[in-house]
């Protein structure tokens, strides 16, 4: 069976790369990869890390691209690839414009589509925007729905969608475990990462920041930067913010924070150095989806600069808090974690509500026609508590 995986942004690449490797390793499945290039620079580093050479590269990114321009380019460029590649199944991931356009393109050609990371919902079309719509529409177009968690699967069932649902765990935890194993198994690599970050002061607590959501453009980013400036005024912390390449993010962040003591604005990090920094951080401040899933697995408290999240599991587990985009609220939530040891200890418990590192195996089993045992977060927790999990 020929499986064509289509992805194009950094988060999709990180979450699809281990799956591509698992498909390659399964006899009876032929893996084909088409990258849209929605994120040219941030995508290519992930392909290099996982040693994936795309069979097709649509190279659609243009500077400051519009959503309609991007979706139009992906639809037009992917159609002839589907004609040439003749896949039996197309796989798309998550909630990006690439995912929506690729699912629609394959649907128009009556090629069955599998949606990896199906079923996450806020049920608010304004946030995340446009991703909530992208994910809902993609789910409706797909015959195979790979829900990462039981909560996501419940959402899909309640919507009475036509696709077959499998609860798989999130492939981001597979990617994270691979990255951690790579770093821990290679002393020279670890030493070179330490060297890369030798500018950090080991006596200060590290606050790692990422932020790029469209609904935060404008006022949201101004408030976030104001909060960061206040946090940076403390002498016991250091902030590292790898700034997303979107010009709508770069402009306000550099304008408002450049030159502030205790704030390091750096270019986006490759995946391994970013995982290294997550592990080294005291807490994480983010509006990212993937980081919300990874950091709890590393035992790092996460403050999410959004009003709603489609990833409620870690909020329920008490290791993630939604702090919105109000400067006072963000600054006081960070101060509470820095100054209250008990509160910090409560947030810093290691939890794996999103996956157990076996998601790709389950997805491959389903593609190969076997019926995989569903991911069970309670069982994953038990294994971890008994010290037999990772
Ligand atoms: C996209 C996704 C969002 C995802 C985010 C992850 C959509 C609608 N949005 O948003 O869901 O959370 O990626 O990062 O699909 N750029 C570069 N080089 C890169 C990447 C981006 O220069 O490698 C710049 C370009 O000017 C590009 C702009 O960033 O036009 C915006 O990229 P785009 O993919 O449209 O939006 P994101 O905000 O990255
Ligand atoms: N990430 C990275 N380098 C960075 C920031 C993030 O490799 O400088 C990784 C992070 O570990 C996570 C993914 O990128 O796996 C999340 O991507 P992003 O925040 O761009 O998108 P989202 O998850 O919000 O869709």
Can you summarize this structure?
The chain is α/β, with parallel strands linked by helices and 390 residues long.
Describe this structure in words.
- There is one protein chain.
- Helices cover 48% and strands 15% of the residues.
- The protein has 2 domains: 203 residues, Glycogen Phosphorylase B (Rossmann fold, 3-Layer(aba) Sandwich), CATH 3.40.50; 155 residues, Glycogen Phosphorylase B (Rossmann fold, 3-Layer(aba) Sandwich), CATH 3.40.50.
- The chain is built from 17 helices and 13 strands.
- The chain is α/β, with parallel strands linked by helices.
- A 7-stranded parallel sheet has the order 3-2-1-4-5-6-7, sandwiched between helices. A 6-stranded parallel sheet has the order 10-9-8-11-12-13, with helices on both faces.
- Helix 1 crosses helix 7 and helix 1 crosses helix 16.
- Helix 10 links the parallel strand 9 and strand 10.
- The longest helix has 19 residues.
- It starts with a strand and ends in a 5-residue tail after the last helix.
- Bound molecules: uridine-diphosphate-N-acetylglucosamine and uridine-5'-diphosphate.
- Uridine-5'-diphosphate binds next to helix 1, helix 11 and helix 12.
**From the alpha-carbon coordinates, what is the Rg to the nearest angstrom?**
20 Å
Total DSSP helices: 17
The helical percent reads 40-55%
Strand content: 5-15%
* Fourth CATH level, the homologous superfamily of the largest domain: Glycogen Phosphorylase B
> Structural class, judged by helices and strands?
alpha/beta
């Amino acid at each position: 069976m020929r499986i064509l995986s289509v992805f194009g942004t950094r988060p999709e690449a990180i979450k699809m790369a281990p799956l591509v490797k698992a498909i390659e390793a399964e006899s009876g499945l032929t893996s084909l990869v088409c990258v849209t290039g929605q994120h040219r620079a941030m995508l290519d580093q992930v392909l290099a890390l996982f040693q994936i050479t795309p069979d097709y590269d649509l190279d659609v990114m243009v500077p400051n691209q519009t959503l309609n321009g991007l979706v139009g380019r992906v639809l037009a460029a992917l159609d002839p690839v589907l004609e040439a590649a003749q896949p039996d199944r197309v796989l798309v991931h998550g909630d990006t414009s690439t995912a929506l356009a690729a699912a629609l393109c394959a649907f128009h050609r009556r090629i069955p589509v599998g949606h990896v990371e199906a079923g996450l919902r806020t049920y608010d079309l304004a946030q995340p925007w446009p991703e909530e719509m992208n994910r809902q529409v993609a789910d409706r177009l797909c015959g195979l729905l790979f829900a990462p968690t039981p909560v996501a699967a419940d959402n899909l069932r309640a919507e009475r969608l036509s696709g077959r649902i499998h609860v798989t765990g999130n492939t981001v935890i597979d990617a994270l475990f691979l990255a951690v194993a790579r770093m821990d198994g290679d002393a020279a690599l670890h030493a070179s990462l330490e060297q890369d970050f030798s500018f950090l002061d080991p006596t200060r607590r590290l606050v790692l920041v990422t932020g790029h959501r469209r609904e935060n453009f404008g006022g949201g980013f101004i408030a976030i930067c104001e909060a960061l400036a206040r946090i940076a005024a403390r002498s016991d912390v250091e902030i590292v913010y790898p700034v997303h390449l979107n010009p709508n993010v770069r402009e306000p962040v550099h304008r408002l924070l450049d030159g502030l003591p205790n704030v390091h604005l750096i270019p986006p990090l490759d995946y391994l150095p970013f995982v290294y920094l997550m592990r080294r951080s005291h807490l994480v401040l983010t509006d990212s989806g993937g980081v919300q899933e990874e950091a709890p697995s590393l035992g790092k408290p996460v403050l999410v600069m959004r009003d709603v999240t489609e990833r409620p599991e870690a909020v329920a587990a008490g290791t993630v808090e939604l702090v919105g985009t109000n400067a006072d609220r963000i600054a006081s939530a960070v101060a509470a974690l820095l100054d209250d040891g008990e509160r910090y200890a409560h947030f810093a418990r290691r939890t794996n509500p999103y996956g157990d590192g076996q998601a790709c195996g389950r997805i491959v089993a389903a593609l190969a026609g076997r019926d995989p045992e569903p991911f069970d977060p309670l069982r994953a927790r038990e294994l971890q508590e008994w010290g037999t999990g990772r």
